[in-house]
Amino acid sequence: MSSTSELQYRSFHADISTEKSSRILAADPRSVEYELMYFDITCVGASPRYMLSYGKANWHDKFPKTWDDKESHDCPFGVMPVLHVKSEDGQAMVAESVVIDMYLAKKFNLLGSNEYEELTIKAFYSSVHYLRERSLMRVTWTQADKRKEGFEAFMTKMVPWWIKVHEQHLERNGSNGHFFGDKLSLADIHLVSTLDHFAELPRGDKIVALFKASPLLWKVRETVLENPEIAAWRASEGYNKVVEGGKKFYSFCTFEDKSEA
């Protein structure tokens, strides 16, 4: 076990005061530069990229040079993503994907207009988020001989149940292409991000097909993609890079299904 003195992870304590860090993070997004440090895949980097594009922010990706080079010296917990916010006064940092998502959603007015709307949008976000996390735990990062079983359970039980529950909410919201209210929100964007992730996986087209067969959920995706800034990001070289990077990376989690032979 490494001693404390051997750890290279960045502390939350910065060279500048907490007051100055707070001012940087609270600044008008048009006055700062955002740098998202994450791998060249979608997954937990997708929603921040969508929101930064939606908000017309000055931003760019920063990729580690190799998968083994996580640049952990700049990550408080040795993992990514990490968002750096840079201004003339210095640089502040936001760590952990959920925290980054919430920070950017608040920054770009994607959490509704009052406390109830914010908490409800966060609830939908959480439900979408943990559907993706369950796929990672039960299908992707499981033992190789368990992937086929995990994939089948995810496809036949978890996703259909999740879709059925959320279709009720979408219908009660007027079937308008939003999880809640009538404006684009963090929850809507996070669904598209999650579908992007599924599409990168081996057999992921089968998962996406279940959502496409749900007109109400697919309408959420189409509504998000109608936003011109998000559409421009998806048409960019940067977006194509992370999509291809994800397909290449997740190729390890394929499995053989003898019933298809």
Can I get a quick summary?
The chain has 261 residues and is an alpha+beta fold. A 4-stranded mixed β-sheet has the order 2-1-3-4, covered by helices on one side. 52% of the residues lie in helices and 8% in strands.
Report what the structure shows.
The chain is of the alpha+beta class. The chain folds into two domains: 11-107, Glutaredoxin (3-Layer(aba) Sandwich), CATH 3.40.30.10; 115-227, Glutathione S-transferase Yfyf (Class Pi), Chain A, domain 2 (Up-down Bundle). Helices cover 52% and strands 8% of the residues. It has ten helices and four strands; from the N terminus they run αβαβββαααααααα. The protein has a four-stranded mixed beta sheet with strand order 2-1-3-4, covered by helices on one side. Helix 6 crosses helix 8 (215-225). It is globular. The model is unreliable at 1-5 (pLDDT under 50). Residues 114-249 form the GST C-terminal domain. It catalyses: RX + glutathione = an S-substituted glutathione + a halide anion + H(+). Its EC number is 2.5.1.18.
Overall CATH architecture of the largest domain: Up-down Bundle
Number of strands: 4
Q: In which range does the helix fraction lie? A: 40-55%
Output the CATH topology of the largest domain. Answer: Glutathione S-transferase Yfyf (Class Pi), Chain A, domain 2
Q: Could you name the ranges where pLDDT drops below 50 across 5 or more consecutive residues?
A: 1-5
Give the number of helices: 10
**Share of β-strand residues:** 5-15%
* Global shape: globular
Largest sheet strand order? 2-1-3-4
Counting helices, strands and paired strands, the structural category is: alpha+beta
Distance between the termini: 47 Å
Q: Could you describe the largest sheet, including whether it forms a barrel?
A: 4 strands, mixed
Number of domains: 2
Instruction: Determine Rg (CA atoms, Å).
Output: 19 Å
Integer average pLDDT = 91
Domain GST C-terminal: 114-249
InterPro entries: Glutathione-S-Trfase_C-like, Glutathione-S-Trfase_C_sf, Glutathione_S-Trfase, Glutathione_S-Trfase_N, GST_C, GST_superfamily, Thioredoxin-like_sf
Organism: Mortierella polycephala
Pfam families: GST_C_3 (PF14497)
